[in-house]
Amino acid sequence: MGPLLNYVNANLSLFVLITLGLIIVTLVLFIVIAHKMYKSVLKYKELLRGTDGKNLEEILYEKGKMMEHILLEMEIIRDTAKNAEINSKYSIQRVGLVRYNAFEDTGGDLSYALALLNSEADGVVLSSIFSQEETRTYCKPVSRGESKYPLSDEERKAIAQALNVKYE
Questions:
Q1: What confidence tens digit (pLDDT) does each residue in 85-125 have?
Q2: What does the alpha-carbon distance between residue 126 and residue 25 come to, in Å, rounded to a whole number?
Q3: Which of 59, 50, 157 is nearest to 113 (CA)?
Q4: Distance (Å, whole) CA 6 – CA 15
Q5: Which is nearest to 48 in space by CA: 38, 59, 64?
Q6: Which of 162, 90, 88, 91 has the alpha carbon at shortest distance from 126?
Q7: Which residues, at least 6 apart from 51, have a Cβ–Cβ distance to it below 8 Å?
Q8: Structure pTM?
Q9: pLDDT confidence of residue 53
């Protein structure tokens, strides 16, 4: 090792200059990388800051809360629609109307039978009988397309019409 040590001692100033050059190159590279990192951090902060000055975390938090609120409202709407569907079964959905002339001495079809039924064929049949002296109105309950009261032919036709059943 003697000759190597002698060579290093003889060229010590050269080794110091090479080492100093490497340190300067490393320092320049460090400064360039630090500057690029600083620019990246600025761009990152700008990206995180929205147009209205809020950062991305605040924006995401607000959007998450908004989504929770929307999902809650959708659940309420879904429940309301389900209740409306259930309740609509009991509303008038089937209507049948038969106009007729109850008496030969009256002109026109001024008498009528009107069936108002829900989806399960429950409801009422209204009858109005017109004569020259008076008009009488009757109402009979209907359950599953039938009534426990005697029905006229016109009332049966109105119920059949409401049920879309051909009545002979």
A1: 888 888 898 999 999 998 887 778 889 999 999 989 999 99
A2: 104
A3: 157
A4: 13
A5: 59
A6: 162
A7: none
A8: 0.54
A9: 67
SS (H, E, C) the chain: CHHHHHHHHHCHHHHHHHHHHHHHHHHHHHHHHHHHHHHHHHHHHHHHECCCCCEHHHHHHHHHHHHHHHHHHHHHHHHHHHHHHHHHCCCCCEEEEEEECCCCCCCCCCEEEEEEECCCCCEEEEEEEECCCCEEEEEEEEECCECCCCCCHHHHHHHHHHCCCCCC
Which whole number is the average pLDDT over 45-74?
Answer: 83
The token duo for 50 is: 């929205």
Residues 6+ apart with CB under 8 A from 108: 101
User: What confidence tier does 160 reach under pLDDT thresholds 50, 70, 90?
Assistant: very high
